[in-house]
Amino acid sequence: MSAPPLRRDLQPELSGTVLLPGEAEYEHELAGFNRIFEQRPSVVVAAANSADVLTAVRHAAERNLPVAVQSTGHGVAVPNDGGVLISTAAMKGVHIDPTGRTARVEAGVRWGELLRRTAPFGLTGLNGASPSVGTVGYVLGGGHGPLGRSYGYAADRVRGIELVTADGTWRRADPQRNPELFWGMRGGKGNFGVVTSMELELFEVSRVYGGGLFLPGESAEAALRTWRDWTRTVPDEMYSGIALVRFPRRTTVPEPVRGRFAVHLRIAYNGPAVEGERLVRPLRGIAPALLDTVTEMPYSRVGEIHMDPTEPGVYYERSARLAELDDAALSAVLDLVGPDGDCPLPAVELRHLGGALRRPPAHPNAVPYREAAYTVFSGVPVAPHQRAEVARHQQRLIEAVEPWRIGGPFLSFISARENDPDHVRSAYEPDTHERLTALKHAYDPDNLFRFNHNIPPSAERTV
What we know:
Layout: H1 3-10, E1 17-19, H2 24-30, E2 43-46, H3 50-62, E3 67-70, E4 84-87, E5 94-97, E6 102-106, H4 111-118, H5 135-140, H6 148-151, E7 158-164, E8 170-173, H7 179-185, E9 194-201, E10 207-216, H8 220-231, E11 238-246, E12 261-269, H9 273-284, E13 291-292, E14 295-298, E15 315-322, H10 327-337, E16 347-352, E17 374-381, H11 387-400, H12 421-426, H13 430-443
Parallel strand pairs: 2-4, 3-4
Antiparallel strand pairs: 1-2, 5-6, 6-9, 7-8, 7-9, 10-12, 10-13, 10-14, 11-12, 11-16, 15-17, 16-17
Helix pairs in contact: 8-10
């Protein structure tokens, strides 16, 4: 069926809008954060509520049209050419239960929006580094952020998920209802349905001791080794990462590091500021800082720590989990992307894992390889003429850390350039991937939801 008849059938049943190619609102609704692919779905459904999502999925399934889902467009994985795209960006409902310390969020809510709503209660969720990322997509991919070492992955702290599955059925997944689906949704990304809302745990955190410590590039070796040794001593309440950054000459970049190669230490301590200051002291002793923004801050400002880009564009990303960072591993990274390296990536970050991220949650989920101690990540904006070069150098980075890798890409950071079956399979332990495959067969045997980091269904095993 062509797009105009589909709109004719769909629109009377929707509170939202059906958009077709060539219409201005169609382009606007498609324009997500990462524009690595040109999306050309036959139809865009700008859903206003969960009923719209259910109706759109039902019509798509009846016509055997594959379905993509987009909220903010940070996690785009595969170009949608000719299918149906359901945009949940307008679904912004938030309900805070301060007594039960939970938040019910609809699928279009961004982390920055949720943090602003929870802050008056002295509560927060387990957000990531960027406040512009959507809550739902982040959680489906595991979700690792500043409070991860304190409380675990965001996927570990989900009370329930409401979604529409490929048969056009609304379901709730939680520990009592559809428990296997609840297991797989938390870590299995968007393979099993369209999430309309989630119930998330909140935590009594209103302030952190955090910020950025920017050191001269020539101190990179000392900074890496000192930070690595320091991570082996800190409590679970300390989150940190270290990035080697070639800062652009832009007015949006702080003047002390503008146009420079520098070390950017990212810190967030979930505890008293006086203890945070004591813990960070060894890092401040590495070298005189170009800029030091580490201080006590409201948790709602935690997005300032990483200084992640906020402008939409084309972003290339690669990542790996690491079992350890011994001296040889540090040298491998430093030789490639340090001040004397020949790999001109704008940014490469190492993050400390462990703590609560290593421990199994109260209700098991599909988040893999919890034993990883660190992760390495490069996510950078690229111009058209830079794409081949950036891709080549990011591949060199992944190859350089191969001896220390655990599995494939870090699930929270798996990218649009890792959408093939081998990369997706390697992101999970074999048993976990097999179980997810069986779950896919049970809930989406025709692979209606395949514009994602796809786990194809299998007819060999059923849940």
